[in-house]
Specification:
By secondary structure, the protein is of the alpha/beta class. It has 4 domains: 11-132, Methylthiotransferase, N-terminal domain (Rossmann fold), CATH 3.40.50.12160; 155-217 and 235-279, Transcription Regulator spoIIAA; 284-400, Transcription Regulator spoIIAA (2-Layer Sandwich); 405-465, Nucleic acid-binding proteins (OB fold (Dihydrolipoamide Acetyltransferase, E2P)), CATH 2.40.50. 35% of the residues lie in helices and 21% in strands. The protein is built from 14 helices and 19 strands. A hairpin with a 4-residue loop joins strand 16 and strand 17. The longest helix is centred in the C-terminal third of the chain and has 24 residues, at 376-399. Bound molecules: S-adenosyl-L-homocysteine (SAH), iron/sulfur cluster and FE3-S4 cluster. The site of FE3-S4 cluster (F3S) has 13 residues, from helix 1 and helix 6.
Length: 478
């Protein structure tokens, strides 16, 4: 990120529609544009460049893009110099369709050529609308792991760290492998270098990112073995990485997302338990409780197996919060299948869950099973029954925390009530408490006084660490 380029600089705005990977890609897009002299604006009417970083995980994610593009058409009519850019997973999947449906889009690029954004904008300015989609085959290592690109972080104290891209699983409902490619692990030392660079820059919290993080390193080990290194053990390196990243000086919190239950090992739980900086929070996507549905999804575990791994996690990692993802209405899901999901969810006692109605994604295996699609009314009913089970355990688990004193990181004033500060606990729960201003990114201890389904309330005990201003190490060159 360069210093302010003055008032003549072009202004950009990036809108993110997707998951943490997309948020992180958006930070890179912002970093690249700032490196090129653009300045950020949050005011759409002042923007010279608007980048829509898209998602296609469910149909409503697709619809959101087309809705936004419709609205931007009017903006472009007012300001013909405005450049509209569409990137991300939906662009990777549907580049041609986007151009057909929205002729006013200047640049379409995909998930593998984020680093090209500035050049593409320049080219489009000279020669008109441009679409450039790469596949992973086109990547060299530096391009595959673009954390070597400039990053404009949304907050100073926390950073995403990509450890792996792509996904080698083939969950029958999921479009991600089609748009993010095969699984590739980022070199171990490069990750640790990045964590150290962040820590030197005042970052205290990192989140390790990948679609299947606990298989991190399998491919690296295999490549070493094939290159004749017999010491390379064919096992994932994720547990080692948690320990090493967690030991970097200055790092106070390590989070990760998402692991896959089928690849989860006790080594990972041991690393969580034995590394004080690794937060006691496990996001453990269940998807369904029915063995039949799980098999048809190709998830690689049963309801029982899931619960036994979870029990092991709770046994090994003290005071562990567990969250999950569940899909309702997968093709062929019967009432009995769904009841099993309710049973497993109740037994799992989740702290909270992202629950989704199944959305057919063209090109995926499950989307072909049109005759087995569930009745939407029934799915709606199941969905609300599932929410009740999730919220019941969420509330219970929150209530059990009343009276605890927990360390929280300060996120800022509460969105609803500016006399309150919002913090995040190690278990990843939001907690609101009355206080005068405290610098974002500081740490404080807070006594929990009240519990709701989605958050906690509390009172400040003391500020334990004041965030330091960042030292402006803007560009990571690894
Ligand atoms: N790699 C991650 C998932 C990323 S997608 C993992 O395996 O956990 C995030 C969540 O979206 C998934 O866990 C799943 O619950 C949900 N999801 C994915 N495809 C979906 C679809 N077609 N319909 C509804 N929900 C879906
Ligand atoms: Fe999708 Fe499954 Fe890969 Fe997750 S593990 S990204 S749900 S295919
Ligand atoms: Fe993420 Fe959506 Fe892509 S969930 S990986 S942005 S399809």
């Amino acid at each position: 990120m360069s210093e302010s380029a003055g008032t003549d600089a072009k202004r950009y705005l990036v809108r993110t529609f997707g998951c943490q990977m997309n948020e992180h890609d958006s930070e890179r897009i912002a970093g690249l544009l700032e490196d090129d002299g653009y300045e950020r604006t949050d005011d759409e009417s002042a923007a010279d460049v608007i980048v829509l970083n898209t998602c296609c995980i469910r149909e409503n994610a697709d619809n959101k893009l087309y809705g936004t593009l419709g609205h931007l058409k009017a903006r472009k009519a007012e300001n013909p110099d405005l450049q509209i850019v569409v990137g991300g997973c939906l662009a990777q999947k549907d580049a041609e369709l986007i151009q057909q449906k929205a002729g006013h889009v200047d640049v379409v690029f995909g998930t593998f050529n984020v680093h090209r954004v500035s050049e593409l904008l320049d080219e489009a300015r000279d020669t008109g609308p441009i679409t450039e989609i790469w596949t992973e085959a086109a990547l060299d290592e530096a391009e595959a792991f673009p954390s070597a690109m400039p990053v404009r972080r949304e907050v100073d104290h926390a950073a995403w760290v990509t450890i792996q891209i792509g996904c080698d699983n083939s969950c029958a409902f999921c479009i991600v492998p089609a748009v993010r490619g095969v699984e590739m692990s980022r070199p171990y030392d490069q990750i640790l270098d990045e964590v150290r660079t962040f820590a030197a820059d005042g970052v205290t919290e990192i989140t390790l990112l990948g679609q299947n993080v606990n298989s991190y390193g399998r491919d690296l080990q295999l490549a070493k073995r094939q290159a004749g290194d017999p010491s390379a053990r064919l096992r994932p390196l994720f547990a080692d990485l948690l320990r090493d990243a967690g030991a970097v000086e200055g790092i106070r919190r390590v989070r990760y997302t998402s692991p896959h239950p089928k690849d989860m090992t006790p080594e990972v739980f041991a690393a969580m338990a034995e590394t004080p900086t690794v937060c006691p929070h496990l996001h453990f996507p269940l998807q369904s409780g029915s063995d039949k549905v799980l098999a048809e999804m190709h998830r690689g575990y049963t309801g029982e197996r899931y619960l036994s791994k979870l029990a092991q996690a709770r046994e090994m990692v003290p005071d562990l919060a567990v969250t999950t993802d569940i899909i309702v209405g997968f093709p062929g899901e019967t009432e009995a299948d769904f009841e099993r999901t309710l049973e497993v969810a109740a037994a799992a006692e989740f702290d909270s869950a992202y629950t989704f109605v199944y959305s057919p994604r063209p090109g995926t295996e499950a989307a072909e099973r049109v005759d087995d699609f569930c009745d939407p009314e029934e799915v709606k009913d199941r969905y609300s029954r599932l929410r009740m089970v999730i919220e019941r355990s969420g509330r219970r688990r929150h209530e059990a925390r009343v009276g605890n004193v927990e360390e929280v990181v300060i996120e800022g004033p509460s969105k609803k009530d500016p006399t309150q500060i919002t913090g995040r606990t190690g278990q990843n729960k939001l907690i609101h408490f009355p206080s005068g201003p405290i610098k974002v990114g500081s740490y404080a201890t807070v006594r929990v006084t009240e519990a709701a389904t989605q958050y906690l309330k509390g009172e400040l005990v003391e500020v334990t660490h004041t965030a330091r201003h960042r030292t402006k190490i803007p560009v990571l060159s690894l």
